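If you are new to this repository, start here. Below is one unmodified record pulled from the training split, so you can see the exact layout before writing a loader.
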Amino acid sequence: MTIFRRKPIMGLLAFSILLLAATCREPEQAAPLNLFDLQTRQSIAGVQAVDALKSARLVLVGEHHTDPSHHEAQLQVIRTLNAQPVPVSIGLEMFRKDSQAALDQWVAGELDETAFEKIYLDNWNFPWPLYRSIFVYAREKRIPMVGLNVSRDITRQVAQQGFASLSNQQRGELGGVTCNVTREYRDFIRSAFGAHGHGNMDFIRFCEAQLVWDTAMAINSLNHLEQHPDRVMVLLAGSGHARKMGIPYQIKSRLPIPATVLLPHTPDIFEPATLTGADADFIIMP
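And here is the target side for that same chain:
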């Protein structure tokens, strides 16, 4: 993989091009973004919040899949960044890499909603209305959407038989995936393992399946950004994957690009009192 770094905006584009891009963009009507900075322990909003995200090439926004307010927060981040001169892509845990052609057709307006919803449900198990506004906005604004996940066959095989059971062809760019993670992440995965009620499934194999998703999404994000060095990616994923110990850890181990993690405010779960800078960079406040 070619090593690349995001240059400052003024080094990325000439000043005149930035002015042209800014004037040609349709003005966004996104509500002001309100963030709680987990490093400084201070609230920031509006222009100051946007400035805090500008240096990132990858902005990860977590979610609890069934919480509509989390998807509203994700859309708010996308709208806010899309109002800036640097173009945006949207990375999706919800779509497999092998469904990229369908995502491209959707964004291009070549698939109607009924046909696309069937493809969405083949990729993801949560109701379409939860995510619809994000997908419709991307289609309206022609924002590229990128499938980041692996096939369900690989996930199922790893969960049942372990990563070592995969063929070289199945592994592709994944390399070697093991449950070699920090104690904090192992504890998090163990809690998820218990919450999902996986019966007799082996924990290590479950952990490897989690790491396969983290690794695949990291690699596919980096590949997209390498191919599109002018873009910022907003990556939407479950909060376990989006937290710094998940996908960002896999990103950092491969290429030290600027990445920022945001988690949407959730009472008693994602709050200033319950998170630190080891978990995320910001909480998206109501």
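Two things worth knowing about this chain: The two ends are 39 Å apart (CA to CA). The longest helix spans residues 203-227.
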